[in-house]
Amino acid sequence: MLAIAPRVGKLTLPPDSIRFLSFAEADAFIDAAAESPTWSAQVVVALRTGLRIGELLALRWEDVDLHAGRLLVRRSVWQGVESTPKGDRAREIPLSDQALQALGDHPHRGRCVFARLDGERRDRHGCTRALYTIAERAGQELPFGWHVLRHTFASHLVMRGVRLKAVQELMAHATMEMTLRYAHLAPDVRRDAVKLLDGPAQHGRNMKPRRRTTARVCRGKPAGELGFEPR
Prior knowledge:
Helix content is 38%, strand content 11%. It is α+β, with helices and mostly antiparallel strands and 231 residues long. It has a single domain, classed as hpI Integrase, Chain A, CATH 1.10.443. The strands form three sheets. Strands 1-2-5 form a three-stranded antiparallel beta sheet, with no helix packed on it. The protein has a two-stranded antiparallel sheet with strand order 3-4. Helix 2 runs antiparallel to helix 4 and helix 6 (147-159) runs antiparallel to helix 7.
C-alpha cells in the first residue's frame, strides 16, 4: 500500500460518436412509423424538431399553433415529474410541412399531444418499446433510443448547410461546444470559405496605398488640436 497517493493528471477520453440516421434511413423510419398511426406523429415531430423525449412527452396542445406553424417548448418530463425544459428557458420551434401535417392528422386524446389511448401522458418505457418496434419494421438497428432522432435532426440541418448558431438555438444547447460536435458534417463550408480568398476583393480594389502622414500643430488653432497633411 502506498503511503501517499501519486498525483494523476486529468484523463481525456475520445468523444462519443454521434449516432444518427441518414436521409434515406430517416425516410424509411417515417414510413415504418406510418404503419402505427398512434406513434407516427411523435416520430415525425421528433425527427423534424429535435425535441428531447421529455419535451415530447410534456408537449401540450396549447403549445402547438398549427396556423402559425410553430410550437413552444415550455416544459419537460423527467421521471414522471414535469418541470421547465433543460436550460430553464422556453423556446420556439418552427414546424416543417411534414410535421404540420402529422400534427394536424394526430387525434386529440388528452391535454398532452402524445397521449395514450386513455388520454394520459405516455411514459418513457412505452416510447422506447414503440421505437424498437418501428426500427425493427424499418430493418434498422437503433440501440440508443429517442435521442438518435434528435441527433438526426441536428445532423441533417448541418448537412443541408444551416449555420451552427441556428442549430444551437433550435437544439437549445447551452454552449456552442455542444453544437460543434456536428461541425464535421459540413466540410464544404470550410472549403468554400477558403475559396473566397481566391476571388477579387469587393471593396477598394482600385485604391492606392495611403502615403505616410505626419502630424503638426496648426497655427491659429487652440493648443492640443492637431492637423494632418501628407509628408
